[in-house]
Amino acid sequence: MEQTIEQESIWLSDRDLEKLTGCKKQSLQIEYLREQGIAFRINRLGEPVVSKDAAKGVQITQQAKPKWQPSLVGK
Questions:
Q1: What is the pTM of this model?
Q2: Angle, alpha carbons 55-56-61 (nearest 5°)
């Protein structure tokens, strides 16, 4: 018998999103998320997608790439 390991999703479920926003309608969910400053994305179906970290208030920062600088070879 094969065992499968289910990986927990990093995204809120539809039910969790409804609970968080208090709304079932997608446009109202989006409005609430914007008002509260909760990071989210809109998928191709027009649905707001929220990570569990964003819902918890965890901020993910992206490290800035260093700017290109000319080599100092030969100086």
A1: 0.69
A2: 90
As a whole number of angstroms, the distance between CA 15 and CA 34 comes to: 19
Helices assigned H by DSSP within the chain: 14-21, 26-36, 52-56
Q: Alpha-carbon torsion 18, 24, 29, 31, what sign?
A: negative
Question: Do the beta carbons of residue 49 and residue 30 sit within 8 Å?
Answer: no
User: For position 47, what pLDDT does the model report?
Assistant: 96
| Reduced DSSP (H G I as helix, E B as strand, rest coil) percent helix, strand, coil of the chain, to 5 | 30, 10, 60
Q: What is the CA radius of gyration of the chain?
A: 20
At 21, is the secondary structure helix, strand, or coil? helix
- Average per-residue pLDDT in the chain? 87
